[in-house]
Amino acid sequence: MAEDDEELKEAMGRSSKAIGLEGFCRWAEELYQGLKEKQGQPLDVAMRRMETPVPAERILEAVSERYGIEIEDLRKRRSVSDARQVAMKLLKEEGGLTQREVAVRLGLEDGSGVSRRLADLSDRLKKERKLRRTYESLRAQIAHNH
Questions:
Q1: What is the 3-state secondary structure of 32-80?
Q2: Please, what's the largest Cα pairwise distance for the chain?
Q3: Counting beta carbons within 10 angstroms of the beta carbon of residue 43, is it exposed (0 to 12), middle (13 to 18) or buried (19 or more)?
């Protein structure tokens, strides 16, 4: 193999979890995320990077459409709606944003507010079937359209 194999370098730069076409790398990322959720913590710090993230605006559009609200409603400071919490989780998981970046996008002062809301949503997703179905449906829609 040549040392300057640009095609191989590009393929290796696509994902820390798989080498292949974008669809395969996305599948590997989703599989990893599912295993991580079952375990409850990341397996390795090197594996935390989100591969092929979905653009934040696409996520916000999908959430606002599903909940029948404007994107600006997701950015209202006093809003603690399901839509806003779901948007936070999707921006972090599917968009690959940090909690601080999510906070900036949604008008919060810092990432700690995002952390608290995500913890609350995580508990609610375990208990509330309708909310869980909405979240999973949105996540699948976003991943499919990406």
A1: HHHHHHHHCCCCCHHHCCCCCCCCHHHHHHHHHHHHCCCHHHHCCCCCC
A2: 57
A3: exposed
Question: Which residue is listed with tokens 């194999």?
Answer: 5
Give the model confidence (pLDDT) of 13-46 as tens digits. 667 777 777 778 778 888 887 777 776 554 444 4
Dist CA 93 CA 28 (whole Å): 14
Full set of structural domains in the chain with CATH = 6-47 (no CATH), 56-145 (1.10.1750.10)
CB 121 within 8 A of CB 76: no
Separation of alpha carbons 74 and 11, rounded Å: 36
Residue type, 92: K
